[in-house]
Specification:
Distance between the termini: 33 Å
CATH topology of the largest domain: Alpha-Beta Plaits
Low-confidence stretches: none
Mean pLDDT: 88
Radius of gyration: 22 Å
Structural class: alpha+beta
Strand order of the largest sheet: 4-7-1-8
Largest sheet: 4 strands, antiparallel
Helix content: 10-25%
Shape: globular
Order of helices and strands: EHHEEEEHEEHEHHEHHEEEEEEEEHE
C-alpha cells in the first residue's frame, strides 16, 4: 500500500457545501470527482496505454457498472491542515454586481452572504495497486492542484487551489497523461506574472470582453459621443442577442454563446428566452446542461508568483453538429467564438 500526502491552499473564495447547505465544507467525494474528471479529460496514464480509458478509470476509481460494481484501488481522504473542522467556514459578502468579481458571481446576486470554505487542507492518496504507479498518482495530484478547483463557480475563478512544493512540475505531470497535449490548451491573460489582487479582475474583464455585446453606452471618461463599446466579442454576442429576441436580420444563422455553457436564460422587456441542451416535447421543458469548456483559473506557483490562466478543455468542447434548443426550437451552434477566444493575441501559452 502506498500513501501520499499533499498540502493544498484554497486561494480564491470556495463555495463547496456538504449535507448542511448553510456551511461550507471540503469533502473527499468532491475532490474524488474532480480527480476523476481530470483523469478522463487527459486521456488516462501513458503507463496504462495497454488498457482502455474506461478500464483504467474503473481500476483506479471504481465502477458502478453491472449488478454489483467494483471498488477502485485509490482511496482519497481529506483533513484540515489547521486542525479546524472540514466544515469550518466564513461568511463571504457577495460583491457588487458591477465589480469584476461580481460579474463572475452573478448567480449570487440575490444571496448577499454565502459561506466560504476554510483556506487550507491536506489530501491523502491511499493506493492499493502496483507501486510502479507512484509517479502517475503524484502527477494527478499536481494537475489537480494547478488546474483544478472546487465548488460553485469553480469554472469561473472560484475555489482555486495551490499545491505546496512537490518534486514534479506541472509540465512533467501533464507529460504522464496520454492526451494532455491535445485535450487542454492553457494560456495566461496578459503578463506572465502579476499581483494576486489582479487575477480575478483580469479574468473577469477578459471574459466580459468576449461575452457582452456592448450596446449599452460606454460610460468611461472621455467617451463624449456616448458610443457603445465594440469589444472583442461584439459581433458574436450581438448575433446571440438578436437570435434570442427573434430579430429578422439573423434569420436562421448559427448561435455562438451556447458553446460556452448551458443553460442560458435571457430576460428583457418582460419576456424570457431559454437556451438548453435538449428538449422534451412531451413535457414541454428543456433538459440537460452543458458545462463550459472555458475555465478561468487564478494560479499561484511554488515561488509565490500569480497568473491569470484561461484553460480551454478541448476534450469537452461543444460537439460538432449538435444543435441547441431555443424555447424548444432547434438552432445550429458555431464554434467560431470559442476558436476566436483561443486565438486572442492577449493570451500567452502556459506553462
Amino acid at each position: 500500500m502506498i500513501r501520499q500526502s499533499y498540502q493544498f491552499d484554497v486561494i480564491t473564495p470556495c463555495f463547496c457545501a456538504g449535507a448542511d447547505h448553510d456551511k461550507a465544507e471540503i469533502r473527499a467525494a468532491s475532490i474524488r470527482g474532480q480527480l476523476r474528471w481530470w483523469f478522463r479529460v487527459l486521456g488516462g496514464f501513458k503507463s496504462l496505454n495497454h488498457m482502455s480509458l474506461r478500464d483504467q478509470e474503473s481500476m483506479i476509481f471504481g465502477s458502478a457498472a453491472g449488478d454489483m460494481g467494483a471498488a477502485g484501488l485509490l482511496t482519497v481522504r481529506v483533513f484540515s491542515k489547521s486542525g479546524r473542522a472540514l466544515d469550518a467556514s466564513v461568511s463571504h459578502a457577495a460583491p457588487g454586481m458591477q465589480s469584476p468579481e461580481g460579474y463572475l458571481l452573478f448567480p449570487l446576486r440575490n444571496n448577499p452572504r454565502h459561506r466560504s470554505a476554510l483556506a487550507a487542507f491536506q489530501l491523502d492518496f491511499i493506493w492499493r495497486g502496483n507501486s510502479r504507479m507512484d509517479d502517475d498518482l503524484r502527477s494527478l495530484a499536481v494537475v489537480f492542484g494547478n488546474l483544478g478547483a472546487l465548488g460553485f463557480r469553480s469554472r469561473r475563478a472560484m475555489g482555486s487551489l495551490a499545491v505546496a512544493s512537490t518534486s514534479m512540475s506541472l509540465s512533467q505531470a501533464l507529460g504522464r497523461f496520454s492526451e494532455a497535449s491535445t485535450s487542454v490548451r492553457i494560456y495566461c491573460v496578459g503578463k506572465a506574472s502579476h499581483p494576486q489582487s489582479d487575477c480575478i479582475p483580469r479574468l473577469a474583464e477578459w471574459l466580459r470582453g468576449w461575452r457582452q455585446h456592448g450596446r449599452s453606452e460606454d460610460l468611461r471618461p472621455g467617451n463624449r459621443d456616448q458610443r457603445p463599446p465594440e469589444n472583442s466579442g461584439f459581433q458574436y454576442a450581438k448575433r446571440d442577442h438578436d437570435i434570442g429576441y427573434g430579430l429578422p436580420s439573423v434569420g436562421t444563422e448559427s448561435a455562438f454563446r451556447p458553446a460556452l455553457g448551458l443553460p442560458i436564460i435571457q430576460r428583457a422587456g418582460g419576456r424570457s428566452n431559454a437556451w438548453e441542451w435538449a428538449w422534451n416535447s412531451q413535457r414541454r421543458k428543456g433538459e440537460g446542461r452543458f458545462a463550459s469548456p472555458v475555465i478561468l483559473r487564478p494560479h499561484r506557483d511554488s515561488d509565490g508568483k500569480w497568473r491569470a490562466l484561461v484553460i480551454f478543455v478541448e476534450a469537452q468542447k461543444w460537439p460538432t453538429g449538435k444543435q441547441v434548443y431555443l424555447n424548444g426550437t432547434p438552432r445550429k451552434v458555431s464554434l467560431d467564438l470559442y476558436e476566436a477566444m483561443k486565438a486572442d493575441p492577449s493570451l500567452t501559452p502556459f506553462p
